[in-house]
Amino acid sequence: MKLEVLEKDSYYHIYNRGINGCLIFENDENKSFFLKQLSKYLYDKISIFGYCLMDNHFHLVIRLNEEEQIVTQAFSNFLNSYVKAFNKEIDRTGSLFEKHFKRIKPNDEKYLKQLILYVHLNPKHHLGLKFEDYKYSSYQAFISNKVTKVEKDEVLKLFGGFENFIFCHNQKNDFLTEKYTFE
């Protein structure tokens, strides 16, 4: 699979999973640390439009604020820092993620909206959980009044406002898992 070249000011679906589908998060602390490291290494280099951390994979919807080389290096540093800490915690060695993080560039606004929906609905489709309550998804950040690092105003505008954002998430979205299978 040829990797999509990352371009400044473009949107991407960034995702990866554990080697052979292994767990990349064993507990909530791992997921919290992953988000902390994401912020530490990438906060000023990307804008986050959505994320979801599942036990054996993760999804990010981002826009690049810097050139490809800077962002790619920051992602490498971020993922390496997470893997080192994870491996040390569970007394493990070696690679944790599949070779390279995958990236797909949405080709239009409609695809970007469907991608955000897909990412937020991941807990429902993979685990049968209520996506609205899932702690390690950015959905909560969009519906709360708390200060957040996700691009809340921009995403809500993309969906036509807060009410429509919620409405779109609560529709029967089975087509998302059929048409947009990213794992």
From TrEMBL:
Transmembrane segments: none annotated. It comes from the Bacteria. Signal peptide: none annotated. One of its GO terms (molecular function) is DNA binding. InterPro entries: Transposase_17 (IPR002686), Transposase_17_sf (IPR036515). Residues 7-122 form the Transposase IS200-like domain. Gene3D superfamilies: Transposase IS200-like. PANTHER family: TRANSPOSASE IS200-LIKE DOMAIN-CONTAINING PROTEIN, TRANSPOSASE, Y1_TNP DOMAIN-CONTAINING. One of its GO terms (biological process) is DNA transposition. This is Transposase IS200-like domain-containing protein.
